[in-house]
Amino acid sequence: MQQASIITDEMKEQLGVEGTPTILEVEKGHIRMMAEALDDPNPLWQDEEYAKKTRYGGIVAPPALLCNARAGTGRGVQMKSPFLRALAGGDELQYYLPVRPGDVITSVSKIAEYNEREGRMGKMLFTIIDTTYKNQRGEVVATSRSTSISY
Amino acid sequence: MAITDELKALIGTTTEPVIMEVERGAIRRYADAIDDPNPLFRDVEHAQSSRYGEMICPPGFFGWPVKRGGVMEVLASLTPALARAGCPRILDGGVDFEFYLPIRAGDILTSSGKVADIRAREGKTGTMIFTTLETTFINQNGDLVAKSRATIISL
Amino acid sequence: MKKQLYYEDVEVGSEVIPLAKIATTEMLVKWAGATGDFNPLHYEDAFAASQGVGSPIVHGALKRAWLGHLMTDWTGEQGILKRLSCQYRGMDYPRKMKDMVTPEEGETWWCKGTVTKKYVEDGQHIVECDIWVENGKGEKTTPGTATVILPSREAKS
Question: What is the residue extent of each domain of chain B?
Fold first, then answer.
């Protein structure tokens, strides 16, 4: 007997619907905090004098600044799942332009896909979330595709 | 109750000045962390139309240090000396702030700390040592914006 | 300043210079603050247990950030990270803190990688790598891939 899909019509309606945009004002202090949190002493993230002499001409943000709650990833999308447990499954980031202090990054997320799979612990739902990050000039600085696994 | 000579010698120690840049995002994160919805700490437009003209810091927040140091530096030399004096456990005994001027996003503060006093007292559980750290915060215009007196209790 | 890596310095099979990391409860707290990820899975014992992971686990995104660190260190300032991708396959558990600054003895994680492909496209010197985070038992809990553009000595002269 064919088992019923866990992907409901209500969930399907959410596909491709853009969430509320999130605005992140990129600040030196936040970049420092990020570098400290991941224990990355690269002076390019912190030392203005040093960074000035590099090809970037000033401090830039480490790749980790994007693709997290503060950067608005997944914000405003209605993630529906029949399960109570959820884990991060993976992330894929594409970087196009450096992000600098003073930049204002607007990110918009949407649910791109739902997939169901049979796992060791029974049915699992894979939710794929796509996010686009643009700077104040409207340039796409990065895109990300994140997978959330609920089970 | 007397304190050790080693501790006595630390009274008057000053810290290297720490530069703190006050940024809007940091103010918002702090307001989030203490769950304070005041729009002066969150909403630029609201804050700019207020008498402050810009987002301001909630009391007790002074922005993020550009480089860590200051009090942490003092604690690094103080902690082993307190342990050698027989009081290895450190507790935050409280803080006394005095605010003189609003601290706005965009300000650059210089904080300087000093070990103002170290005293010993006999408590129920034995000797307690009270260390008072004084910190001053001066903005980019050279104005004193705040002072703090923090007490560290060791036992 | 670190020595700059050039396209000509790497071959398929070349190793990305490994980077050691120690996940501690302290690091997880810092990461939560920096990213705004306050999922209790990463700090609440009972909740983590109810989610079937035993005890609080290291954020997947923190391991991804480590892999970013691996790549930006390796490629140097002239290098550009174009793409970073990883899957969170295995749970990792942070070391607890012994005192205010020292973690307990325990696991050290290694971020590693190897070059899988190198080619020139539209004048860009592109290098692709397999990358991963390896736990103390040598298990790859976070495998992924990265694409970087490196400077070329030939293009320079």
Answer: 5-22+63-154
Domains of chain C, CATH where assigned: 7-22+58-156 (3.10.129.10)
Strands C140-150 and C80-87: antiparallel
Q: Which residues of A touch B (CB under 8 A)?
A: 24-25, 27-30, 32-33
Q: Are strands B126-138 and B108-123 parallel, antiparallel or unpaired?
A: antiparallel
Backbone region of residue B99 per phi and psi (left: phi > 0; alpha: psi in -120 to 50; beta: other values): beta
The pLDDT tens digits for C13-30 are 999 999 999 999 999 999
Mean of the pLDDT values across residues C126-135?
Answer: 97
End-to-end CA distance of chain C: 22
Query: Which residue type, as a one-letter code, is found at position A118?
Result: E
With cut-offs at 50, 70 and 90, classify the pLDDT of residue A1. very low
pLDDT one-digit tens code per residue, B99-114: 999 999 999 999 999 9
User: Which CATH class for the A9-150 domain?
Assistant: alpha beta
Q: Do C37 and A67 touch (CB under 8 A)?
A: no
| pLDDT (0 to 100) of residue B124 | 82
Contact A87 C53 (CB under 8 A): yes
Mutate to test the interface with A, among C1, C66, C67, C69 (most CBs of A within 10 A): C69
Q: How far is C118 from chain A (nearest CA, A)?
A: 18
Q: What secondary structure does DSSP assign to B67-132, as a single string?
A: S--THHHHHHHHHHHHHHTT---EEEEEEEEEE-S--BTT-EEEEEEEEEEEEEEEETTEEEEEEE
User: Touching check for C33 and chain B: CB below 8 Å?
Assistant: yes
A chain contacts of residue B23, beta-carbon cutoff 8 Å? 27-30
Q: How far does the CA of residue C9 sit from the closest CA of chain A (Å)? A: 20
Domain ranges of chain A: 9-150
Q: Residue A137: what are its φ and ψ, rounded to 5°?
A: -95, 5
Q: What whole-number distance in Å separates Cα of residue B22 and Cα of residue A21?
A: 25
Residue owning tokens 């302290």: C26
Domain B5-22+63-154, second-level architecture: Roll (3.10)
Please check the confidence at residue C1 and state whether its pLDDT lies above 60: no
Q: How far is CA A125 from the centre of its chain?
A: 19
